Amino acid sequence: QVQLVESGGGLVQAGGSLRLSCATSGHTFSSDAMGWFRQAPGKEREVVAAISRSGGNTYYGHSVKGRFTISRDNTKNTVYLQMNSLKPEDTAVYLCAKSMSGYSSWYAPQQSYEFDSWGQGTQVTVSS
Predict the structure, then answer these.
(1) Which of 19, 24, 54, 78 has a CA that sits 20 to 30 A from residue 115's CA?
(2) pLDDT at 101
(3) pLDDT confidence of residue 84
(4) Between β-strands 78-83 and 18-25, what pairing exists: parallel, antiparallel or unpaired?
(5) Are 94 and 121 in contact (CB under 8 A)?
(6) Alpha-carbon span 42 to 56, nearest angstrom
(7) Whole-Å CA distances, 76 to 3, 5, 40, 44, 110
(8) Residue 49's beta-bridge partner residues?
């Protein structure tokens, strides 16, 4: 059974930084692309960032490009999201997701339907 467990969320002032981690088990980590999504109250879930199986290709949502960095450690079965220059509008529950199998090693999926397993999320709150 696939499990994804996020950690690292919390309360931070605008301009601050947080690093989220997502530890996974129950699958061959290096065979799957990974992604981070977020959902704020009353808003649709949106992609934050995604990373290919190899880690060589990444995708960022336009609102976080240049501020957030996704990375992965295939030896630790963990994906990370470094968030810098945080803004109040970044406040949301951040969810880690595992892609469906079969994507090329260079592909970073961008749509929620391309992912088949999700963590429970970690709350990030940015105060102004």
Answers:
(1) 19
(2) 86
(3) 98
(4) antiparallel
(5) yes
(6) 34
(7) 14, 13, 29, 31, 23
(8) 36, 60
- Which amino acid is residue 106, in one-letter code? W
Residue position matching structure tokens 């501020």: 67
pLDDT digits (tens, 9 = 90+) for 90-105: 999 999 999 998 898 8
Asked if 71 and 51 touch (Cβ cutoff 8 Å), the reply is yes
How far apart CA 16 and CA 76 sit, in angstroms, is: 26
pLDDT at 116 (0 to 100): 96
**Identity at 93, one-letter amino acid code:** V
Contacts of 82 (CB under 8 A, 6+ apart): 17, 19, 68, 69, 70, 71
**Residue 34 to residue 105: CA distance in whole angstroms:** 11
Can you list the residues of the chain whose pLDDT is less than 70?
none
pLDDT at 39: 97
Both tokens assigned to 10: 């919390």
